[in-house]
Amino acid sequence: MSTTERPRILVVGGGYVGLYAARRIQKKMRYGEATVTVVDPRSYMTYQPFLPEAAAGSISPRHVVVPLRRVLPKAEVLTGRVTTIDQDRKVATVAPLVGEAYELPFDYLVIAMGAVSRTFPIPGLAEQGIGMKGIEESIGLRNHVLEQLDKADSTTDEEIRRKALTFVFVGGGFAGAETIGEVEDMARDAAKYYNNVSREDMRFILVDAADKILPEVGPKLGQYGKEHLEGRGVEVYLSTSMDSCVDGHVVLKNGLEVDSNTIVWTAGVKPNPALARFGLPLGPRGHVDTQATLQVQGTDYIWAAGDNAQVPDLVGRKAGNENAWCPPNAQHALRQAKVLGDNVISGI
């Protein structure tokens, strides 16, 4: 760790906001003006919008991740988790991958912890569900799907084949719709190399509790996406949810029951729950409450942005929507990171 006497800008999280904010700060600040410290459990940043493509083998896994130390050569990168923050003392407690936790003093703080998968206490989900938040899960899904094709090709037991070739995706947002589209395309192509497996043998099911998919892009594009998936043989069930999936037996609220070895959970995200331990002002859904400048409400040395922050949408509010917030996507995260970096520099 650094023993510098310079002010420390502590960036908690190395995702989109953390990485790009740290780069912006280092670009804008004068030489030796401050020490930028980035703390994250992983030593790399993941381009999450590319995970569906990685799951389908369309792009190489190495193109989805960026090593933090390579792109932030002048920053102090610590692999670990910030477990607590003492705002009175301006000290963070860091739990490294191995060894004892230690205290890390800071002068300015950037909260960029992102979001985690939102799950529910559905019977069987913890044992059967496959997430899509990291490159490991993405590659694991690809290998898992190909393994199911191998199983189906090697047996004549119709029950085993049916369970192996049924793929259930829960959640129709960006992650769910893109992932089922990519995986269906991969499975369709892979089936050409099997003697006993065809696309007609497979069953792809997309489930969402809302009355539309892809709500982020609006109703027209969402309807187009639904029709496109259905045109490729994907069954789309809306306004319903999964009641249970014990031992792969999927039961939907609309009465549909299927057996599947592949249950992919992409039913939304929530702010990192660790935020509740930091003593920061939080919104009704657990996001850090920020001003339009990305400064945390009630502070003059803490900033937040990205999926873990509720950032006012000035355009929406100008149009009359007093509760307009910026959507949690990569495009907004990148823009917010630049503004955040500039504002941090102006406050030093």
Briefly characterize the structure.
It is built from ten helices and 21 strands. The chain is α/β, with parallel strands linked by helices and 348 residues long.
Poorly predicted parts: none
Instruction: State Rg.
Output: 22 Å
Multimeric status of the protein: single chain
Q: Structural class, from helix and strand content? A: alpha/beta
Number of helices: 10
| N-to-C CA distance | 22 Å
Major sheet: 7 strands, mixed
Characteristics:
FAD/NAD(P)-binding domain, 10 helices, five-stranded parallel sheet, 348 residues, alpha/beta
Give a written overview of the molecule.
By secondary structure, this protein is an alpha/beta fold. The protein has 2 domains: 8-116 and 270-347, FAD/NAD(P)-binding domain; 125-267, FAD/NAD(P)-binding domain (3-Layer(bba) Sandwich), CATH 3.50.50. The chain has 10 helices and 21 strands. It has helices at 16-28, 51-55, 68-71, 125-128, 135-153, 158-164, 174-190, 219-231, 314-318, 330-347, and strands spanning 8-12, 35-40, 44-46, 65-67, 76-86, 91-96, 102-105, 108-111, 115-117, 129-130, 166-170, 203-207, 234-237, 242-244, 249-252, 257-259, 262-265, 269-271, 288-289, 302-304, 309-310. The strands form 6 sheets. The chain has a 7-stranded mixed sheet with strand order 7-6-5-2-1-8-20, covered by helices on one side. Helix 1 runs parallel beside helix 10 and helix 5 packs antiparallel against helix 6. The longest helix has 19 residues, at 135-153. The radius of gyration is 22 Å and the shape is elongated. It starts with 7 loop residues before the first strand and ends with a helix. 37% of the residues are buried. The mean pLDDT is 94.
